[in-house]
Design a protein that fits this description.
Blueprint: E1 8-18, H1 24-47, E2 51-62, H2 65-68, E3 74-75, E4 79-80, H3 85-101, H4 114-122, E5 133-142, H5 168-176, H6 190-198, E6 206-211, H7 223-226, E7 231-234, H8 242-256
Parallel strand pairs: 1-2, 1-5, 5-6, 6-7
Antiparallel strand pairs: 2-3, 2-4
């Protein structure tokens, strides 16, 4: 009997990190999580009888355009976790250094420009789906603050260059790639539809792990995003094991237990 071919897996992980001073206690834990993830995922996939072909990681950190202007958001390229771990560590160290040398970025105000950073994450240069691969596009967002609404900081330096959407509903449609039913609003522009159609995000492959406070903080909240499909929400608490247990539970199910590329 012919030996069955192992299913290949490719995983992209985008870390979206609040780089303001209040996140200082979590920075080292997030970095250690990122370093440990490639080995843990590879071993989980192997135990499931599959082959990990590629793991890529990138970092997006954010603060507030009001205080930081054009330096509000930093976005790295994707790095291959098998041979570019030094570059990945350097990205996390640069975020950590900002917090250790001072009060972090973003001033003393909340909320922050987290939705803008998340928008960039959704528009990352993701690995595209292949018939012989089980692809996963994972976004992990860490913040202890509420998000500003899109365009609230539009008048500040650096904001306009990104061409952010006017409303969160556009990001919702990109996440779901759905233009019918309740997600079809009348003022959706041709530019939006074209932009979303060209995105490399694959909804069936995409997952979001949101470490963020729930409920209304200063008139803003993560409650809307937390209701989206394939979004898993956890509190941001800086105690040992919290991040590791959540990732083990979620990513273990998503990667190791899947049977086909379209599951």
């Amino acid at each position: 009997m012919a030996k069955s071919k192992k299913l290949n897996c490719s995983v992209d992980i985008v870390f979206v990190i609040d780089a303001t001073g209040s996140m200082r206690l979590l920075m080292d834990k997030i970095k250690q999580l990122a370093i440990a993830l490639p080995k843990a995922l590879t071993e989980a996939v192997k135990l499931a009888g599959k082959n990990m072909r590629k793991i890529r990681m990138k970092v997006i950190d954010f603060a507030d355009f009001k205080s930081e202007g054009k330096d509000t958001i930093h976005e790295s390229p994707f790095y291959n976790a098998s041979n570019q771990i030094v570059q990945i560590i350097n990205e996390f160290d640069s975020v950590k250094m900002v917090n250790e040398l001072g009060e972090g970025r973003g001033g003393d105000e909340i909320p922050e420009n987290a939705l803008e950073a998340l928008w960039l994450a959704l528009n990352s240069d993701f690995t595209e789906e292949r018939p012989d691969e089980n692809v996963r596009q994972i976004i992990m967002l860490f913040t202890d603050a509420s998000p500003l609404h899109f365009q609230e900081r539009a008048k500040y330096p650096g904001y306009a260059r990104y061409n952010f959407p006017a409303r969160i509903q556009e990001m919702r449609r990109l996440w779901g790639k759905c233009y019918g039913g309740e997600l079809n609003i009348s003022d959706g522009s041709d530019e939006e539809i074209e932009r979303n159609a060209n995105a490399k995000l694959i909804p069936s492959c995409a997952r979001m792990i949101l470490y963020a406070p729930q409920g209304d903080l200063v008139g803003h909240s993560w409650d809307y995003v937390s209701t989206w499909e394939r979004v898993y929400t956890f509190p941001v608490v800086p105690y040992d094991g919290c991040l590791e247990l959540a990732v083990d539970r979620i990513l273990g199910d998503l990667i190791a237990a899947t049977g086909t590329a379209n599951s």
